[in-house]
Write a structure and sequence with these properties.
With 136 residues, this protein is mainly beta. It has helices at 37-47, 125-132; strands at 2-4, 7-9, 11-15, 19-24, 27-32, 54-58, 63-68, 75-76, 81-87, 90-95, 100-105, 112-113, 118-123.
């Protein structure tokens, strides 16, 4: 609990591999030490790009999947809501950071997820078209 003036705010802190995830209200903040910050920023930037033609959304917080808004084959744009996860009685919309085609959904509604679990894979649209095309 955090007290600011006359308000009491619930704060959840969860350790991550290189940092801490802090949930305040409905927002998740990533807190890192100065020593590890450079390595973490580079890894986060790489996670926001296609690697091997795919981008993987991993769970940023521990909670329960309340709603899966995409299915395999759906086209998504950067910013589209892929899932809704409840953590500490708050609903958190997890969004695509890259455009493409959903190639895998690893969770279903009411699944319990922990930080780092794979949730949704998005493939580059050109690659998805080639991979699903007729065999020659």
């Amino acid at each position: 609990m955090l007290t600011l003036d006359d308000r009491v705010i619930e704060v959840l802190v969860e350790p991550d591999v290189q940092a801490f995830n802090v949930l305040i209200g409905e927002r998740v903040y990533e807190v890192e030490t100065a020593r590890r910050g450079q390595r973490r920023r580079r890894r986060r930037h790489e996670g926001d790009q296609f690697v091997g033609g795919k981008w993987l959304l991993r769970t940023p917080l521990t909670g329960v999947v309340m709603e899966v808004r995409v299915a395999v084959g759906d086209r998504v744009a950067a910013g589209d809501v892929l899932l809704v996860v409840e953590a500490m009685k708050m609903l958190n919309e997890l969004r695509a950071r890259v455009p493409g085609v959903v190639s895998a959904v690893h969770v279903a509604g009411r699944d319990l997820v922990e930080i780092g679990n794979p949730l949704v894979e998005v493939s580059e649209e050109a690659r998805a078209s080639r991979d699903s095309g007729p065999a020659t």
